[in-house]
Specification:
Two copies of one chain form a homodimer. The first copy, chain A, is α/β, with parallel strands linked by helices and about 325 residues long. Chain A has helices at about 10-25, 65-70, 85-90, 90-110, 145-165, 190-200, 220-235, 255-270, 280-285, 295-300, 310-320, and strands spanning about 1-5, 25, 30, 35-40, 50-55, 75, 120-125, 170-175, 175-180, 205-210, 215-220, 245, 250-255, 275.
Amino acid sequence: MRVAVSGAAGMLGRKLVDRLSKSGTVAGKPISGFVLHDIVAPTAVNGPIKTEMLVSDFSAAGAAEAIVASQPDIIFHLAAVVSGEAEADLDKGYRVNLDGTRALLEAVRKLGGDYRPRFVFTSSLAVFGAPLPDVIPDDFILRPLSSYGAQKAMGELMVADYSRRGIIDGISIRLPTICVRPGKPNKAASSFYSGIIREPLNGVPSVLPVSKDMRHWFASPRAAIGYLVHAAELDTAPLGGIRSLTLPGVSATVADEIEALHRVGGEEAVALIREEPDATIHAIVSTWPKAFDARLALDLGFVPDKTFEEIVRIYCHDELIRA
Amino acid sequence: MRVAVSGAAGMLGRKLVDRLSKSGTVAGKPISGFVLHDIVAPTAVNGPIKTEMLVSDFSAAGAAEAIVASQPDIIFHLAAVVSGEAEADLDKGYRVNLDGTRALLEAVRKLGGDYRPRFVFTSSLAVFGAPLPDVIPDDFILRPLSSYGAQKAMGELMVADYSRRGIIDGISIRLPTICVRPGKPNKAASSFYSGIIREPLNGVPSVLPVSKDMRHWFASPRAAIGYLVHAAELDTAPLGGIRSLTLPGVSATVADEIEALHRVGGEEAVALIREEPDATIHAIVSTWPKAFDARLALDLGFVPDKTFEEIVRIYCHDELIRA
C-alpha cells in the first residue's frame, strides 16, 4: 500500500505517519511507501518504509499532481489554512482549502483508468453554526459561521460528489476538538480547552476565560489518529451516498475537565488555573457544538475516548512520559 | 434601483423581467435600469426602462465583471448549467455553477467601497438527497446526489459566507419544482410532472411513467417569480446567519395532479394521460423530496400557491388565455 499525506508536518500528520510507520501496515496490507507533503519539510520517518518528501505551498501549481503521481492507494488530505488565517485572508483560505482540495481531486481524476484511491478528508466541527440543538444529530444542516467552516463544508460536498462519480472512494470526517493538544498555547479561541489541562500538568499557570458550565466536544490526539486510520480501512459500501461523518467524542464541561485534572494531577494542578473571564472568547465559544449523537460513526466502528479523564491520562502517557 | 439578472433568457428570467418591467418598481423604489445577461440574447424588454443586454458564456472571462460593473442594487443570479448537463459534463458544471457563481461574488468584492448589493441566488431541491424524511425540516442536511446539487449547495455556502463578511446581502432560495412549466416536454426526469397537465390541456396525449402515489413539491411559475421578488425585497436582518431558505410549495401526488386536471379540464383531458411505467424514471424520482415544513420562509412572508388546482388554473390563465 502506498500512503500519501498532505499536511504531513502538522500535529496530526506527524502522529499519523508515526503510527503507520510503527505498524508498517494499513488495511491489513504492508505499507510499501509514503508520500509526505507540507509547506515545511515533514519530520523524517523512522523505519524501513521508503518515503518521498514533497515540500511546497499546497496551492502551488503542480503540488496536487506531485502528491498523487505515484498513485497512492490511500490519500490522507490534512492540509489546510486554519480557521483564524482563513478568516483574516479570504483569498488564501479559498485558494488552499477549496481550490487546493479540488486540485487534489482533479489530479486523481486526470490519472484516470482504474485508479480510485481511498481519500480521507479531515473536515471540522466548524461546518456547524448556531442555532444548534444541545445534541446535534447526524443529519443536521451544515451552516458554518466562518470562512474556514464554509470551505470545509464545500470540500465535503466535493468529496461526496467525486465519490459518487467513482473518481475516488472518499470519506470526510469531522474531528472533535483535539484535546489535550501538545505544545504551546496559541491564539485560537479554543486554546484554553487544552491549556487548562496541559499547563497545570507541566507546573505552569493557565488562564480560564469562560464559565465552568461551558460544554464542548473532544477527542484525544490518539483517538483522532485512530479515526483517520479507521476511515482509511473501513468498508464504504454501507455508506451509500453518505460520505461525511461526524465522529464520536467526549462531551465535557470545563468543570468536567477540571475534575479530571484533579484526579490525575491533584489539588496543586487545579490551583494553577486562574479564572479570568473574557467576554469575546466566551461569545465565540458559546456558539460551538456541545454534543453530538454520532450514531452513524459509532455503528461504523469509530472508537472514541471513554471519559475526559482518559483524555488527560493519554496526554500524560503520550506526551509527558514518552517525551 | 438598478437590477441585474443572469440567466435572463431562461423561463424564470424572462418572467421575472416581464413582471419587474410591468410594475416598474422593486422594494418600493422605481427601477432605473436593467442589466440582462445570458448566453443567448434575452427578449427585448417592453417599456421605458433602460436595458443593457449582455450576451456571453457566463463562465467566460469578464462576464461576471460586466454584469456588476454598473453596481446594480439587486443581482438575481439565475444562470446555471442544468442538472442533466452538469451530470454529463463535470467540467462544464463546475465551471459555470461553481466558478461562475464565485466569479460573480468576487466581481462584487473587487468593486469594494460601500457597494453591497442584494444577491438572490436560485438554489434547488437537488441539494437534498436520500435518505430523506417524509417532511423535511428547515435544518435538514444538504446531501446532494447529483453534481448539480453539489454545485448549488456549494453556491449556497459561498453566498452565506460572502454575506457574513459584508460583501453582499445575499439570500439563496431553494425553489420547488416549477409546475406547470410552459413549452415543450424535455428529457428531464421531472418533465412528466408538468407534461401530464400541460399536454392534455392542449389536447395532446401525455405519458405518465410513475405510479400515481408518487409525491413531490411544486410551485407555479407565478409563485416562483413572487418568491424571487420577495427575496429581493425582504429585510435580511432577522435571518442572522441563515442565508438559505427552502421555499414553501404544494405537496401533491400524481393522483392529486390528475384530480386537479379533472376539475379544470374535465374527463376528456384526463383521458389523454397514458400510463407507461418507466423503472428508470421511477427510481430517480422516488429519491426526490416529497414535502417540506418550510416554516422559516412562511414566517418571512413567502406566499405559496394554495392548492394544485390553483397551479393548474395559473397555467391556464398565464399561458393559454394570455398567450
